[in-house]
Amino acid sequence: MLIEIVEILLKIVIILALPLGALPIIIHVERRGAAFMQKRLGPNRVGPFGLLQPLADVAKFMFKEEVHPTHVRDFFYTAAPLVALVVALLPLACIPIAAPIDAFGKTIYPEVFRSDMGIFFAFAASALGSYGILLAGWASNNKYSMLGALRACAQMVSYELSLSTSVVAMIFLYGTNDIHLIIKAQTGYWFGFLPMWGFFLQPVAALLFLVGIFAESNRLPFDLAEGESEIVAGYHLEYSSMKFALFFMAEYIHMIALSALFIIFFFGGYSLLPGMEIIANKSPILLVALQAISFITKIALMIWFFVWVRWTLPRFRYDQLMNLGWEKLLPLGIANLIVTVLFVYFRNP
Q1: Pick from 157, 165, 264, 138: which is nearest to 216 by CA?
Q2: CA–CA separation, 68 and 38 (whole Å)
Q3: 326 and 158 Cβ atoms separated by less than 8 Å
C-alpha cells in the first residue's frame, strides 16, 4: 500500500511539474515566434535573449495589486479561475508519456488514472473547460464578460460535435479505446519508411480533430471569446493579477492536453520518432526515456503549430465560425464516421 501511495504521488508531481514548468517556455516561444513572424525583436531585455522575461511576468502577476470589483458575485468570481485551471489539468491524469514497464514484480503505468476508459475521461474533463469560462462571465456581472462567456460556450459545444465524430471514427478503426493499444497500433512502418500513424489512415478525421482543438482552446482564428475589437476583452475582463494569470495558465495547459490527445490518435503518441529505434533496444530505461522525449517533442512541435497559426490567420467572424462548425465540419465528420464504420464492417465480416 505504501509503495502504491508513493507511486501515485510521484506520478502526480510529474504530471503537475511538466506542464507548469513548460509554461514559461511556451510563453517565451509564443512571444518570440510572434516577433519573428512580424519581423521585430520581441522580448530581449530581461536576461540573455530575453529568456528571463517569462519569470519577470510571473513576478509581476504575483505582486501586482489585485482589483476586486464591488459589483461581482464574490464566491463564484474567485472560484472561476481555479475551476478553469483544475479542469485544464484533469485530462493530463490519464495521458501516458511512455509505455508501461515491469518493475518490482508488477506492471507500472505512467499515467495517474489508469483505465480502459481513460480516453473518454480525458475528453469529458476537457469538455468541462466551458464551465470555468461561463462561471467567470456570469460571476463578473458585466455584459461584455457574459457575452464572451456565452460565445465561448456556444463555440466549444459546436466544435465538440465534429471533434467527437473524428474520435469515434478512430476508435472504430483501431478497435479499442485503450490508449496504450491505440499507440501500439501505430508502431512500425509501411513500406519500410512511412510511420503507421493515424494521420495517414484518417486525414479527414485528423483535420476535423485539429480544427476542433483550436476551437476548444479558444485560440486564433477561433478566439471569439476574447474579441477585443467587439467585446473589450471577453470573459476575463474583470480579472487582474493572479486570477487573470490562472486563466492564462489554464489556456496553455488546455493546449498541451489537447495536443497530447491529437498526437495519441494521429501521430503515434509516445511511439519513437523515426531513427530512435537504433539505440532504443539497448535497455528498458533508455527505451522509456526515448519514448518520453518523443512524446514531448511531438507536443512541442504541436505548440509551435498553434503559435504559427495564431500569427498567420485572421480572426473569423462569429457567423463564419458557427457556419463552419455546423454546416461544414459536422456533416463532414458524420460522413467520415459512416464510411469508417462501413470500412471496418466489411474488413472484418
Answers
A1: 157
A2: 36
A3: yes
DSSP state of 284: H
- Nearest alpha-carbon partner for 314 in 204, 203, 229, 209: 229
- How far is the C-alpha of 226 from the C-alpha of 147, rounded, in Å? 10
Q: Check: CB of residue 83 under 8 Å from CB of residue 135.
A: yes
Q: Residue 220's CB: how many other CB atoms inside 10 A?
A: 18
Give Cβ neighbours of residue 187 (< 8 Å, ≥ 6 apart). 196, 268, 271
User: 221: cis peptide before it, omega within 30°?
Assistant: yes
| Three-class secondary structure of residue 190 per DSSP | strand
DSSP 103: E
Cell numbers for 312: 498567420
326 DSSP assignment? I
Task: State phi, psi for 173 to the nearest 5 degrees.
Answer: -65, -45
Query: In this structure, what C-alpha cell is assigned to residue 69?
Result: 470589483
User: Kindly report the CA angle at 108 between 120 and 261, in degrees rounded to 5?
Assistant: 30
Can you give the pTM of this predicted structure? Answer: 0.91
Q: Can you give the pLDDT of all 349 residues of the chain as single tens digits?
A: 677 788 888 888 888 888 888 888 888 888 888 898 888 888 888 888 888 888 888 888 888 888 888 888 889 999 999 999 999 999 998 898 888 887 767 778 888 888 888 888 888 888 888 888 889 889 988 888 888 888 888 888 888 888 899 999 999 999 888 899 999 999 888 887 888 899 999 999 999 999 989 888 888 788 777 766 665 677 888 888 888 888 888 889 989 999 999 999 999 888 888 877 777 677 778 888 888 899 999 999 999 999 999 888 888 888 888 899 899 999 999 999 999 999 988 887 6
